[in-house]
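The instructor's notes for this session suggest beginning with a concrete chain rather than abstract definitions. Hand out the sequence below and ask the class to guess, before any prediction is shown, which regions might be ordered.
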Amino acid sequence: MTNPTPALPTSRHFQLAQVAEGIYAAISIDGTGSMSNAGIIDLGEATLIFDTFATPQAARDLRAAAELLCGHTIAYVINSHRDGDHWWGNQVFLPAATIIATGKTHASLLRNKNMSKEKMQASIENDIQDLEARLAQEQNAHKRHAQANEIATRREILAAMPTFEKAMPTLTFEQQLTLHGSQRTAELLTYGGGHTESDMFLYLPDDGVLFLGDLLFVRTHPWVGAGNPEEWRRILQQIERSNFTVVVPGHGPLGEKSDLALLRRYLASLAALAEECMSKDLPLEEATKTSLPAPFDEWEGADTFDDNMEFFYSRGK
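After discussion, reveal the predicted structure:
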């Protein structure tokens, strides 16, 4: 008689999924302060964490889960890119862990290093006020749901401000960094910038697993406002040549290789729709009332669609 598989640790911030032996995806639960997905990887003698959520509260649960599952020191923390929802939990893993990012991501974080907690708090409070005002006027059920989750998440971040500390990467690389463990090899790679000016991903070649950060959103509208959609599509196409079967996105549920092609199609469809609206001289307010074809019209995060249309409109001027 075989022993039952032990239950995975639980958290109100995320749901764990075992994608291979010693590899776990931490899938964000909306409105709880995690805000993005993360990963736990057992290298053999040490543990690697991929991204650290948007709050120390969520990161503490991630650390506890990693220590319980792997039983090793958390030696490495990976920050896939500059957005705070992927690294504001870094402080929880110090001083033991080395925090790793690309050189361009590190430079981007340094430019904002001296922003005071008072300014961060004021910015978050303003975001909450803006979102509440939009929610009060919004009629679309999908957008109301997304806005409510955004408000709850920002309140979680606001609650963390008194004890929040910026923990910066201390090790950087330009194209590839390989970590060798007795259990597996982990390849940290960047093909440039699509979602931001520099996007790093994690490839576990022996397991056929990818952690893509915000290079991939699964069944969720991606935010394109700080990116280069054409370059993003090129990067995804390049990644598709890798040998993998499971992919952990920055947002949304676990995916597979076909989800990369689907996101490329989303980006192309979004650009085409914005161009069509502009060619008809539709004002932005009217353009945000249009919709993408299936299956994109049913994706989560519908409020992000408005931001994406605004981005393409600003580029088209």
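Then share the key points. The helical segments are 56-70, 103-111, 117-137, 141-160, 229-239, 257-279, 284-287, 302-316. The two ends are 68 Å apart (CA to CA).
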